[in-house]
Design goal:
Layout: E1 6-11, E2 15-21, H1 24-29, E3 37-39, H2 42-51, E4 56-60, H3 62-72, E5 77-80, H4 87-98, E6 102-103, E7 115-121, E8 127-132, H5 146-150, E9 152-158, H6 165-181, E10 184-188, H7 192-207, E11 213-217, H8 218-225, H9 230-238, E12 243-247, E13 253-257, E14 260-264, H10 278-291, H11 296-310, H12 322-325
Parallel strand pairs: 1-5, 1-9, 2-7, 3-8, 5-6, 9-10, 10-11, 11-12
Antiparallel strand pairs: 2-4, 7-8, 12-13, 13-14
Length: 331
Amino acid sequence: MTDRRLDVLAIGNAIVDVIADADDEFLAREGMHKGAMRLIDEAEAVRLYDAMGPGREASGGSAANTAAGIASLGLKTGFIGQLANDQLGTIFTHDIRSLGVDFETAPRKDVGATARCLIMVTSDAQRTMNTFLGAAQKLGPDAVDEAGVADARILYLEGYLWDPEEPRQAMYKAMDAARAAGTKVAFTLSDSFVVDRHRSDLMRLLDESRIDILFANEAEITQLAGAADFDGAVASVASKVPTLVATRSERGAVAARGGERVSVPAERIEKLVDTTGAGDLFAAGFLAGEARGLGLERSLRLGAICAAEVIQHYGARPEADLRALAAGLLD
């Protein structure tokens, strides 16, 4: 592949996270399913914010978290996501640029409020997310610069953003530009609800060879494959995509490419604090390895290192120097 300005260009929801501690009784009272993500409207976001405990604000969004992780590893990355022209939009823009991520999407005045995710973290470190998408779901095709896509080695797409129509069309445009330029397309399934709502779309993307690297966790891959067990699901989906990466929380991760299948264990940690962003940072490590051509095993190990860092503190962005933690793997 010829030299590109960016190693990875990510497209996803531009969201500000509000993270608070909660107990199981609070989740039950609010009708939440532990560990899941649900979409809420602006009125519910205001009501729930008033009901939850003291929160910690941090810029988030799945693909944006991945971009932040890749930047922490010392690679060149960019992000496309829609913000409103409001205070949270200003916070998000400052945060992501301060990390060295190329972010040029202009805020808009006609898209409502900037998206936010109200995250409840229980004592077992499980995170339950309540997402108001707001401006994020108004990302349109005009926000995608085809030349920018062509100038990246890998295009990374967030499954959460597949739900609304406008962003879906933006991602189709980006995939077409990637195919024309020889840019690899990576796609994360994001959540079981995405698979449930869009399984036929997702299978069509695989059948049309629009995806080069697919990320999924154990629940998502078995649901996509319609299989009863993990190994059967991996075998089924791996036959449809050049590279499949499937994570299994504390049981590590598996990658399959052609006839090669590699697995790595999860990294050891001192204390599990908050699983928010674990999959996002795993993808950051793996994509960094792919961009550097490190092979499946080293890329998986990078993913495991990045995921281990983020689950030992609150928030979905790395706090430690990931490049230092991965010393030797990226050299």
